[in-house]
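Session log. Operator J.P. requested a structure for one protein chain; no other inputs attached. Running the standard single-chain path with token output.
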Amino acid sequence: MRLAILLAAMMRLGTGGDVRALAEAIAASDATWEEATWLAAIAYRESSYRLRAVGDHGRSLCAYQLQGAPRAVLTDAALCTRLALHAFRASARLCPAQPMAAYAGAPCGSVVAGRISRDRDALRRRMFGGAQ
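Structure written below.
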């Protein structure tokens, strides 16, 4: 059921990315449901669900635009998701009010951290609505 909800919500955004592979990786991870919804929103904003996405002049990799990740994340949705979940959890621990702060490289309490956190939170709420 978790996979079906993730897949439906992610596909509604109308992207042609690696939606199924990422939804399966999120569903199979040890993420809580709340964390799973954050991961879905992060992957959409960072790459439109493209597993092989490379940004920041080659420094940010995979659907979640992870910095310092091995290049294997470009073809391994489970690894990409596992590392993103670890990064998100660390970021949320550092700044609970703005869980995307450290993930986005922004200082906790900054305007940028607030904007990015609010954006991802609003997106996940729009995507999952009552399924939260």
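Operator note: Residues 77-94 form the longest helix (18 residues).
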